[in-house]
Amino acid sequence: MSLDDLYREVIMDHYRMPRNQGSLPDASACTKLHNPLCGDDIHLELKIENGTIADVRFAGRGCSISQASASLMTQAIKGKTVEEAAELMRQFRSVMQGKLDANQVELGDLEALFGVAKFPVRVKCAVLPWEALRTLITPDEAPDEEG
Q1: What is the dihedral of CA 56, 12, 88, 136, to 10 degrees?
Q2: In this predicted model, what pLDDT tens digit does every residue of 17-69 receive, in sequence order?
């Protein structure tokens, strides 16, 4: 099995069986975003306690890339401090926008999405959940140029 096949398998696994999907009745922050170009929707809820993302949930609809990205993102940020999640978000966005070489970062399972960067129209799908995260944890930071 090639690396590309493995990455496709990871994306499809997260699309078919998303992690952290649902809602948080005691969320401390939430947002909804929509990508009008493809119709993807994301609703992201965070429970932040003492500067740490104690829990996270998402709901939405859209393509396999946007939904898998949301699932992978929630796994990656859960238990991290807001600052750690913000740095992870910046690195992911930079790779997806071609501003940072994927070989310069170690992002675990998120690397399954790096191949999407070859398809500019699909980058917006992968970045949508991360843009939702940005609005919640770094609202003064500039939005993505790609999404």
Answers
A1: -40
A2: 999 999 999 999 999 999 988 899 999 999 999 999 999 999 999 999 999 99
In angstroms, the CA 124 to CA 130 distance is: 10
- Structural domains of the chain, ranges and CATH numbers in brackets: 3-137 (3.90.1010.10)
Phi-psi region of 22 (alpha: psi -120 to 50; beta: other; left: phi over 0): left
With a CB cutoff of 8 Å and minimum separation 6, the contacts of 69 are: 113, 125, 126, 127, 128, 129, 130
**pTM (whole model) above 0.85:** yes
Give the residue from 96, 141, 143, 84 showing the smallest Cα distance to 122: 96
